[in-house]
Amino acid sequence: MTSGAGMSLAGAVREATAVLAAAGVPSPRVDAELLAGHLLGVGPGRLRAMLLGDSPAPEGYDDLVSERAQRIPLQHLTGVAHFRYLELAVGPGVFIPRPETESVVQLVIDRLQGSRHPKVVDLGTGSGAIAGSIAHEVPGSEVHAVEFSGFAHAWAAKNLLPLGVILVRGDLRDALPEHNGTFDVVVSNPPYIPAEAIPNEPEVALHDPPEALYGGGADGMELPTAAAASAARLLLPGGYFVMEHAEVQAAWIASMLERTGLWSEVTTHLDLNGKERATSAVRRNGGQNPEPRAAKPSNPEIPDERIGQ
């Protein structure tokens, strides 16, 4: 950028939009405005009002736009990811929550309508987006969250402890054995990308931690299968399980849940883009929890929604 001192805010944002578009950033105008608002400490409404006047560009704007043009994630530059009603602290070492996951949270909230003091756990919480949203939006809930990565756990602690979430460092495959059979809801957005899949977007390939992307095994299904097994172990009879996945994995996951004999009401759910984004099920009475067993989905390609920025 060549805006230099004295360029108007509006002119700088126009130039930044062009720079980001040339770099292949998917939403150049939005990102240009968000970076300006971050430096100015104002929200979108106030920023747009300022763009109509002769406000000057903020100091350091060129440098920030240049970093974004290098495909450093926007959220790493601002330190914040917006998710439902929360502002989450994020940065290197933690998966940046995607808008598609907001529909998974809504499934849990809808399920808990009218419940008094429900007990919920989020397996593989990452930044804490799901667990934090449930704690914030379901009054009286007791929310637990499990995260294995030390880096992600540190970010989750910053986001979740102020919300009263009980955060545990652990593996979703065997976490919380002392709570077996006590949860009303288990929710998970586990890693699910196959081992050889290559993320399309530089933001993901270079900056999202691999342990938050790859689900284990050639088909990526080891951790999703393990999350389902842990859910069966942790839930009360009649408890609700919902898990995010790739669109192409929906049929396989539904079939896997049905084959175990542990679940009823297996249902695939669409996100706001009409993609088969999540599968839910209700824990049957009785039955033994099987050992996790992965199998290859009918189509192992993972669509851009998961691995794109």
Structure description:
With 309 residues, the chain is α/β, with parallel strands linked by helices. The chain has 2 domains: 9-70; 83-307, Vaccinia Virus protein VP39 (Rossmann fold), CATH 3.40.50.150. It is built from 12 helices and 9 strands. Strand 1 and strand 2 (86-89) form a beta hairpin. Helix 1 (9-22) packs parallel to helix 4, helix 2 runs antiparallel to helix 4 (61-69) and helix 6 packs parallel to helix 7. The protein is elongated. The two termini are 23 Å apart.
Task: Please name the defining characteristics of this protein.
309 residues; alpha/beta; Rossmann fold; 7-stranded mixed β-sheet; two-stranded antiparallel sheet; 18% strand; elongated
Q: Please name the fourth-level CATH homologous superfamily of the largest domain.
A: Vaccinia Virus protein VP39
The proportion of strand residues reads 15-25%
Note the run of SSEs as H and E: HHHHHEEHEHEHEEHHEHEEH
Assign a percent range to the helix content. Answer: 25-40%
Which CATH C-level class of the largest domain is it? Alpha Beta
- Give the CATH topology of the largest domain: Rossmann fold
* Count of distinct structural domains: 2
